[in-house]
UniProtKB/TrEMBL annotation:
InterPro entries xref list: GlpE_sulfurtransferase, Rhodanese-like_dom, Rhodanese-like_dom_sf
SUPFAM superfamilies referenced in this protein's UniProt entry, alphabetically: Rhodanese/Cell cycle control phosphatase
The protein, known as: Rhodanese domain-containing protein
Organism: marine metagenome
Xref: PROSITE patterns: PROKAR_LIPOPROTEIN, RHODANESE_3
All residue ranges annotated as the Rhodanese domain in the record: 37-121
Amino acid sequence: MIKYLFSIFLTIFLLMGCTKTEFSDVITMEEFKSSVLANDTIVLDVRTEEEFYGPLGHIDGATLIPIDELADRMNELSSVKDKTIYVVCRSGNRSGRGKDILNANDFTAVNVNGGMLAWDALANE
């Protein structure tokens, strides 16, 4: 009986140890701003230059690489390949594509859903 219980326990333990930890590749702007954003956070803005410097502004320290140029300019991010890159755009659509491009090329990227529209809304609360 003890061998049987031990076998069940061991099987459950091994199965739990082999399960992959969930990594969320999407975060809300509120979560990002309140618990992730710091001086050393890597932020990639995939909007156009006009948007980056436009009315919604940009996050201090963000790197600008427009989504249409990202595939050709990923080498500019090689120095932060070992870190998580938080991708932003206006609303979260282009940053979702940017996150997918980066993750497909062995980066760890997270889409900041809601984008700069949500950043602006949080600033105006």
